[in-house]
Design a protein that fits this description.
Residues 1-10 have low confidence and may be disordered. The chain has helices at 11-40, 45-91, 93-106, 111-135, 145-169, 175-198, 202-231. The protein has 232 residues and is an all-alpha fold. Helix 1 crosses helix 5 (145-169), helix 2 (45-91) packs antiparallel against helix 4 (111-135) and helix 6 packs antiparallel against helix 7. It binds zinc ion (ZN).
Length: 232
């Protein structure tokens, strides 16, 4: 018997890593843009910081709320699907056996073998077999709304903390440049890390995140500067 390598593919690790990187990206881009917009309007450092901190809290809560709602509704759908499946299994065993066997035929098994596989899997765990192969629900994809909400709020806050730290540390005269440059560096590092962990080329990932980050920051700074001179 040959031993399996411990890690054959990386999809499971990519799931949470991608979510974490996306949360942190959002935190960096939106908070750095906010800071630059307010700084561009000529505000003092204390006011820039207040805006940035408010942006961190607002963004983290908005991420948490959005994630909770979206994952909850996914979880409701999954639960309803499972409930329907449980009823069908209880009332129409024959049709369910044929249904599962048909799925395996479609995936390439011969009819007799498909029937055998379906019978054996259903003897072992009928609902589990239907959940996996008919509904596409596995334990790994089972939705957890509270964890998802907490995770996206936390990763957003970590990302948002980086431009805020730069805002605290940079001299006011250089604040805009320090926040913009450090945020682009953080974005590039995150993009490279995510790409390398996923086994894809890091150059494309870094180019994408820095381009969109620079665009967001540049645009917000421009609007802030314009607004600051016309309104302020
Ligand atoms: Zn079924």
């Amino acid at each position: 018997m040959r031993a399996h390598p411990v890690e054959r593919h990386r999809t499971t690790r990519i799931g949470w890593l991608r979510a974490a990187v996306m949360g942190a990206n959002d935190g960096i881009v939106s908070t750095a843009s906010l800071v630059l917009g307010v700084a561009g309007a000529g505000a003092a450092r204390a006011d820039v910081l207040v805006a940035g901190v408010a942006g961190l809290v607002a963004g983290a809560m908005s991420m948490a709320a959005g994630e909770y709602v979206s994952v909850s509704s996914q979880s409701d759908t999954e639960r309803a699907d499972l409930e329907r499946e449980r009823k069908e299994l209880a009332t129409d065993d024959d049709a369910e056996r044929a249904e599962l066997a048909a799925i395996y035929v479609k995936r390439g098994l011969e009819r007799d073998l498909a029937r055998q596989v379906s019978d054996q899997l259903m003897a072992h765990d009928a609902l589990g077999a239907h959940a996996r192969d008919e509904l596409g629900i596995s334990e790994l994809t089972t939705a957890r709304p509270v964890q998802a909400a907490f995770a996206s709020a936390a990763t957003f806050a970590v990302g948002a903390g980086l431009p805020l730290l730069a805002t605290v540390l940079a001299p006011r005269s250089l604040l805009v440049w320090v926040v913009a440059a450090s945020s682009l560096v953080f974005l590039a590092l995150l993009g490279a890390m995510a790409a390398l962990a996923g086994g894809s080329r890091w150059q494309a990932s870094v180019a994408r995140v820095t381009f969109w980050g620079a665009l967001a920051m540049g645009l917000t700074f421009g609007v802030g500067a314009l607004f600051g001179t016309t309104v302020g």
